[in-house]
Amino acid sequence: MSFLELALLGQVLFWLIVLGIFLASGQASLFHPLTFYLGFHGVVFVLRPILVHYLGFDTLWKYMRLAPADEDLIRTLAVSSVALAAFSIPCLWVGWGKTVFTTAETDPFSITQRRGLIVTTLLLAPVIAFSIRSYLGGGMQGENVGGVFILQGANGYTLEAQNMAGPLICAWLAVTRFRRVALVPLAVYIAYRAYTGWNRWTIVLLFLALCAVYAWQNRIKWVPRWAFLLAIPLLLLFQTLGKNRDYFRLMMAGETVELPAQSMTRAEELRMKYDTQEFANFDYLCYIVKVVPDRTGSFTYGTQYLQLFTEPIPRKLWPGKPIGAPIGFFNLNNYGNFVGLTPSLPGDGWMSGGWAGVVVTLAIVGCLLGLAHRWFWRHVQNNMAALFYLVGIAMLPQWYRDGGISISKFLFWNLSPLLLWMGLTWLLGSRRVPVWSELLPRGSQIRLIDPGSGPQARPPSPTLG
Questions:
Q1: Among 30, 388, 391, 411, fewest CB within 10 Å belongs to which?
Q2: Where are the domains of the chain?
């Protein structure tokens, strides 16, 4: 065996060891952030490099104009394994808690909560409709500047507001406990996404959220059985849109949809089917590890996260807004072609500071998600709090895949409808606020004082407690 083949075998064994420890810990469930990371790592950093090596995948190498040596591939495998360890240890340790459902079923959503969801839907439906109209009307126009797509038509808020439809559909399915009538908006939403061809990941992330909500409501810790059956057509839809974004649009218009030539060998068919951008983060990480810092001359030192403060400002209000991060040490496109590709969390950590950057970035993310996991189990009986967590955790694959600040956009559009729902529920209800409580010894005397009473007011008579 070559050194690369030994490294590939070690990659598999290390992933299996971490998976075994996770399963033996008693913390493993569909609701744990580490579950999603192990799935992500297994696909893009374990399976993908095996296919790249043994099936000769080179589509992305040609696209990026990169010719990696075996040493580059081995180093990339090592970086991804360090990232797995740096994420898993703090996430499992900080997120440790009692992962047991205290009741046989979830509390039903109250009348006030249902009314709040109705009002939320009525308020957001026009916004979502306007966003869809702007998108279909050609609002998605712009240009590529240094590998960053700059909108020139509608602003990002207008185009992205339609993403609030997903969490609203998820909320209605949770409130109705997945009754068939509530599946109609879901089918319409998927049909719309398939027709437009873009934002395929919104379908996948909504599917993950629905699986998590269903499992939580039915008090099961893993993926429900029906999800495995639906995953097959979902994967086919995802791949179809990946090959041709206009597939369903052309089909609805009665136009001929171009299909790949049939005179291909088995190896060529496998390459065309699986050597795509969707799960090629190993290839992207290899590019980053090879050029940073040897060719760039520096790291980013985490400055890419400063974009969190500039990104929310519309470019129409700030014409001179920096493209990408406000402080740029280098542009990956100056050393090849990285347009449309994502660095992933390990790649983002490597750009920040090499090996130290990978450990620090993944450890911080692991700690934050571990705290969120522990919070979930402490509030697992609170239906709105649990739904808030479950919708948020379904966005994690996008964060693992993209790295950087993109997760903030996904969380904003997916959690803001739920936050609005919570606020309206509080306004429509008894509007309770937290107060201090005090345990008094038996026989104590207390005096009740009216907050609105003045100095001249007659004090109430003492009351024994």
A1: 411
A2: 3-428
